Amino acid sequence: MHEYTDQTRALAADILRYAEERLRMDPVPLDAPLTKDQLDEIAGGAITPRGRGGVAALDLFAEKLAPACLSIDHPRYLSFIPCAPTREAAMFDLVVGASSIYAGSWLEGAGAVYAENQALRWIADLAGFPEQAGGSFVQGGTIGNLSALVTARATAREQAAEGVRPYRIAATVGSHSSIATACRVMDAEQVQVPVNDRMQLTGERLREVLLEHGPETFFAVVATAGSTNFGIVDDLASVAEVCAEFGIWFHVDGAYGGAGLAAPSIRAKYAGIERADSFIVDPHKWLFAPFDCCALIYREPALARVAHTQHATYLDVLNDAPEWNPTDYSVGLTRRARGLPFWFSLVANGTDAYTAAIEHTLAVARFAQREVERRPYVEVVRDADLTVLVFRRLGWSTEDYYAWSDKLLADQVGFVVPTSHEGETLARFAIVNPKTTEDDIRVLLDSMA
Ligand SMILES: *Cc1c(COP(=O)(O)O)cnc(C)c1O
């Protein structure tokens, strides 16, 4: 199985053909999950002592398992935050997989790390971060947020007065669930700052909460640039001001919305992000990279190295070198060059194409809002800041929303799951796929009439 035989050659052709056909489908079939029992029936016992051969294994995947996975890049997949990789990024993922690159250290993966850092630099420049800024690509926003917060805490405790151990994070109800998860992992306490009437975190309310609890007990403030449920961008400038006043680490979670930095029509919403100590963006969300890919960027990467570098005699050869080791900036040691498909697509397409694609999704989201406003049976819950639109179907119960969503999937029309806000079930569109059209929006809204 490590030799390249005639069988391998045949399999390579099959695999490349399969991948090429999948990338060419337009649209891709939406597909749908099966139950464990159903999958047992059609794919149970696949692993045998003697093996089935690559062609049979590929057939099993293509015929039985792939159709039981939703196509996240389907133009009417508007649930959660979809993922719509560019053809170039998706294709290059094959190359990364074939290349056995260890991208944890410069020594082992210099070329890949150099390229990943170029892609990080593009994002850092969009945010207006200084020359020394940097970080790495991690699995996702959850690990990105956790890693940044671990750095924030280590830094705060290093700088705190004798006997003071900051243990709190200030965030809001709109913060992503991964912030609460990070707090559990770190045994930290999340203090909720009330939001304003636009559902944003603001410096004014933050200041009150910090003073009420004692600013010295906080090691980080988390602002969200594009909340997952509503796409809300917090008032970053006023938050930055208060963080500076109290000397508290300012982290911006832009896992979904950070991509909007590349869109001139909404760039002003992010004013203040340039003052963050750390921020994240998931290219696998609105920057068209395949799973899994989160850009984690620090203003002062040296602080992250102190918090995250693993030490052991067998690692001395890496740690004693002055070069950039991506593994030093996050939780985790071994890492694939997960930023490379994104880098490749940036090089191939140019950044203007990214700006155009993001602006296009914004235009479709604005169209969706106008359509909802125009139709008498639906109403907008809150104006869309970015490309998430939450709206109400007048007269529907929770069961109605779920029945509608189930039927859309059963009919292979779309995948749009309901959300909820303050106990009310609501409809939600998250539009990050440039292939989602105004017509798709019409079809989905028609289905609610
Ligand atoms: C998706 C998301 C996360 C978590 O990112 P993963 O890549 O799913 O781990 C964190 N914050 C926000 C705002 C998100 O939208």
TrEMBL record:
What are the recorded GO MF terms, alphabetically? aromatic-L-amino-acid decarboxylase activity; pyridoxal phosphate binding
Modified residue N6-(pyridoxal phosphate)lysine is at which positions?
A: 285
- Record's keyword terms, sorted: Decarboxylase, Lyase, Pyridoxal phosphate
Identify the InterPro entries for this entry: Aromatic_deC, PyrdxlP-dep_de-COase, PyrdxlP-dep_Trfase, PyrdxlP-dep_Trfase_major, PyrdxlP-dep_Trfase_small, Pyridoxal-P_BS
Organism domain of life = Bacteria
Keyword Lyase among record annotations = yes
Q: Name one GO biological process term.
A: carboxylic acid metabolic process
Cofactor(s) the protein requires to work:
pyridoxal 5'-phosphate
Respond yes or no to whether keyword NADP is given for this record: no
Q: Which family is this sequence assigned to?
A: Belongs to the group II decarboxylase family.
Name of the protein:
Glutamate/tyrosine decarboxylase-like PLP-dependent enzyme
